[in-house]
Amino acid sequence: MVTYGSVCSGIEAASVAWGPLGWRCAFMSEIDKFPRAVLTHRFPGVPLRGDFTEIQEGEHESIDMLVGGTPCQSFSVAGLRGGMDDERGNLALEYCRLAARLGPRWVVWENVPGVLSSNGGRDFGAFLGALVELGYGVAYRVLDAQYFGVPQRRRRVFVVGYLGDWRRAAAVLFEPEGMSGGPATRREAGEGATADVSGGLRGPLVVDARQITHPENRSIPRDVCPTLARSSRPVVFGDRLPRLLTPRERERLLGFPDDWTRIDDTTRDSPRNRGLGDSAAVPVLGWLGRRIGVVEATVNKNA
Fold first, then answer.
1. 225 catalytically annotated
2. Nearest to residue 32, comparing CAs of 261, 287, 253, 259?
3. 3-class SS at 135?
4. Contact call for residues 30 and 48 (beta carbons, < 8 A)
5. CB under 8 Å to 168, separation ≥6 — which residues?
6. How far is the C-alpha of 46 from the C-alpha of 99, rounded, in Å?
7. Is the dihedral of CA 108, 109, 113, 115 positive or negative?
8. DSSP one-letter code for 68
9. Which residue of 113, 273, 288, 292 shows the fewest CB atoms closer than 10 Å?
């Protein structure tokens, strides 16, 4: 069993994905009011912290893994240039500092693809360099949720690190048998019913509400809706008039159980939509967890 700590938890896609694997969350950390309310409601037995930069060694049980997706706006080469001794820092660097304090053998970090080109790639390179300075072997890959069983294009960068061995990190993200659930053919961004958000898509996004079903319906099309972002206002065509996506439909597009973000009868749609717009896709994290489990089993077998 893997014990992990979650930072910048949001509505906690990681625990939804990894609960079925039997993994245990030692603590969560989130500062926004509504996601914190969701976490309190859904995980009453898990310690919930605010600012993860205040978490110190020994305050929680030891963890095997640190997972989180720090806000992309925190990337600044000015904060990373000084390495681990620079007190100015930012949240990406603070993530590394927390890993240094807690010493997990695994780190999993997620962000939008734009971080790859931030400051000409130097910011992302500095972040990877900080992890390497701590002794982690790292690998990264852009994964698209549409190839993991949810009907939307949602590309995210995932960094996986393993303490002392880059080969184990690479084995998670680059399995030899190919990505499970991959389509028979791949279309270019912008071709067909959807356009990738990295192409500058703006304005209403039109989809068919009748095609949005729970992820356990494996026949759902893979190109129904583009990525959900705060700046987008997805519109669906119902039986008669166009309308905005409901929070439940957004949950299904990300692989969450129905009404995951509905705390009670007074919960408004707008905070639910914001929380979902910031979240990773559950099936992608589920795939990563299973891959880590395979590597862990191999390590233990050879120990």
1. no
2. 261
3. coil
4. yes
5. 137, 162, 295, 299
6. 20
7. negative
8. E
9. 113
| Domain residue limits, the chain | 3-176+281-302, 199-277
pTM: 0.79
Question: Tokens in use for 278?
Answer: 């910031």
Cα 184 from Cα 110, distance rounded (Å): 26
Integer Cα distance of 262 and 272 in angstroms = 7
For 159-209, the pLDDT digits (tens) are 999 999 999 999 999 966 544 444 333 434 333 222 222 222 223 334 444
* CB of 77 closer than 8 Å to CB of 122: yes
Tokens representing 56 are 């110190």
55, two tokens: 């978490």
Q: Say if CB 136 and CB 207 are below 8 A apart.
A: no
* CATH T-level topology, domain 3-176+281-302: Rossmann fold (3.40.50)
Category of 115 on φ-ψ map: left (φ > 0), alpha (ψ -120 to 50) or beta: alpha
Pair of tokens at residue 168? 């184990």
pLDDT band at residue 15 under the 50/70/90 scheme: very high
